[in-house]
C-alpha cells in the first residue's frame, strides 16, 4: 500500500479527525480528496452533488441529483437507498440513528450540507422542474 508523509502537526490533525468521524486516518484523507473532486468526478451522474450530514455523532454521506431532487444515501445510517427528497432521506437517517424520536420530521434542505462547500443543501435549491 502506498504511503504519504505528513508533518507531525498535520498527522495529529488527521488522527483527531479520524477519532471524531469514527473512521481510519486513510478514510479521512479519502473523504477529503473526494470532497475536493469536481462535481463530474464526485458522483454517479454528471450532475450529482456529494452531500453529508452529521446527526448525533453519526456521519452520513450521499449524492443529491438536482434534476430529480432525489438523494441517495451512500454511507452511514440508512445507506443503500435512494429517497424521493432530501427531507425523506433526512427522516430515514433520523429514524435509524434515533428510533425513540417520536417525530422524525426534518427539513432536508438544511439537514444536508454540500460536501465541497460546506453550505446547506438549500444553497442549491431551485424551483421544482428546473435544472
Short description, anyone?
Helices cover 34% and strands 20% of the residues.
Describe this structure in words.
Strand 1 (49-55) and strand 2 (58-65) form a beta hairpin. It is globular and about 45 Å long. It has helices at residues 8-21, 25-35, 39-42, 86-97, 108-111, and strands spanning 49-55, 58-65, 70-75, 81-83, 113-114. Strands 4-3-2-1-5 form a 5-stranded antiparallel sheet. It contains 5 helices and 5 strands, in the order αααββββααβ. With 131 residues, it is of the alpha+beta class. Helix 1 (8-21) crosses helix 2 (25-35). It folds into 2 domains: 1-36, no CATH class; 40-124, no CATH class.
Helix-strand layout with pairing:
Elements: H1 8-21, H2 25-35, H3 39-42, E1 49-55, E2 58-65, E3 70-75, E4 81-83, H4 86-97, H5 108-111, E5 113-114
Antiparallel strand pairs: 1-2, 1-5, 2-3, 3-4
**What's the tally of helices?**
5
Rough outline: globular
As residue ranges, the low-confidence spans are: 38-43
Question: Mean pLDDT across all residues, rounded?
Answer: 85
Biggest sheet, in brief?
5 strands, antiparallel
Helical content band: 25-40%
Keywords:
5-stranded antiparallel β-sheet, 131 residues, alpha+beta, 5 helices
